[in-house]
Amino acid sequence: MFKSLLVLTTGASLLALAFPSVFERYQVSLARPEALDPAPRVVEAALPAPAPGRALRLRADPDGHFRSEATANGRRLAVLVDTGATYVAMSETTARRIGLAPAQAEFRYEARTANGEARAALLRIDRLALGTLPPRPADVMVLKGNALGDTVLLGMSYLKSLRRYGVADGWLTLEP
């Protein structure tokens, strides 16, 4: 009996001496970062933008209007091309959003719009770009309050600065 107790004690002692080093190696293996597979290669799916300075073509909407995105002083705007509008026209709310802040005294003009008459201020945008066309300055009529809502009319004060614009077969072509 003493002999088996001595063998058991010796075995337990050897196990107790070996266990800390085995446990430390196990902890070190847990601390190493797990090796991950490399991320899959990203493939660009968008078409390249047309080179600036080239003609821009807009297709008519089902209602016959030409709509596009423009940037005014670096801020995006949805616009409706309107050859019947003398100026680029927008509401006071939209003007403030793009950094134009007319003083109350500047609303000295009376404008007739499809929505009726409204007080208006005449200002100038330094940089107005339609689609891929290069930016250019344009005169802007800002209507008091929210007369036009979110609609921005791209009128003749912008269009006449272009070399050419014209409509054929449901497409509006604008050339800088």
What does this entry show, briefly?
The chain contains three helices and ten strands, in the order αββββαββββαββ. The chain has 176 residues and is of the alpha+beta class.
Helix-strand makeup class: alpha+beta
Q: Please estimate the helix content.
A: 10-25%
Q: Summarize the main sheet.
A: 7 strands, mixed
Enumerate the spans where pLDDT stays under 50 for 5 or more consecutive residues. Answer: none
- What is the number of helices? 3
CATH architectural designation of the domain at 70-162:
Beta Barrel
| CATH level 4 superfamily of the domain at 70-162 | Acid Proteases
Shape: elongated
Number of strands: 10
Order of helices and strands: HEEEEHEEEEHEE
- Taking all Cα atoms into account, the compactness measure Rg is 35 Å
Average predicted local confidence, pLDDT: 83
In CATH's first tier, which class of the domain at 70-162 applies? Mainly Beta
Proportion of residues in extended strands: 35-45%
Our measurement of the CA-to-CA distance between the termini, rounded to an integer number of angstroms, reads 106 Å
CATH topology of the domain at 70-162: Cathepsin D, subunit A, domain 1
Topology:
Layout: H1 2-31, E1 56-59, E2 67-72, E3 75-81, E4 88-91, H2 92-97, E5 109-113, E6 116-130, E7 136-143, E8 152-154, H3 156-159, E9 164-168, E10 171-175
Parallel strand pairs: 3-8, 4-7
Antiparallel strand pairs: 1-10, 2-3, 2-6, 5-6, 6-7, 9-10
